Amino acid sequence: MITGKAADRTVAVEVAPGGALRELTLEPSALRLEPAELARRILVLSAAASARATASLWHSLDGEVDALGLPAAGEAAEETTPDSWRAQ
Predict the structure, then answer these.
(1) What's the Cα-to-Cα distance from 53 to each of 8, 19, 23, 34, rounded to whole Å?
(2) Is the pLDDT of residue 83 over 80?
(3) Superkingdom of this entry's organism (predicted)?
(4) Torsion angle of alpha carbons 25, 31, 37, 41, nearest 10°?
């Protein structure tokens, strides 16, 4: 699991490999933030932790990406989608 915490520790997130949000922790002081600021912190921490989790996943798959049929880093998934799977 990958975690991200706000500098003031009011908000913490935990994401699974691949980036799915698994846990969100809010300290009582976080509830005193403006709603827009709280939302921004959650989104920023989630995005950062998700990026680290995705990078970690790609690193752990080193050399196995082709065997699994996954797109290479930087390659759009749509480029690897078979025509038979596309909406007609």
Answers:
(1) 22, 6, 14, 28
(2) no
(3) Bacteria
(4) -10
- Could you report the per-residue pLDDT of 16-61, keeping only the tens digit for each? 877 788 999 999 999 999 999 999 999 999 888 888 887 776 666 6
Rg (CA), the chain: 17
Is this prediction's pTM over 0.85?
A: no
Of 35, 13, 9, whose CA–CA distance to 23 is shortest? 13
Nearest to 35 by CA among 5, 11, 4: 11
Spatial separation of the C-alpha atoms in residues 10 and 35, rounded to whole Å: 13
- Domain 2-85: give its CATH code: 3.30.1310
Domain ranges of the chain: 2-85
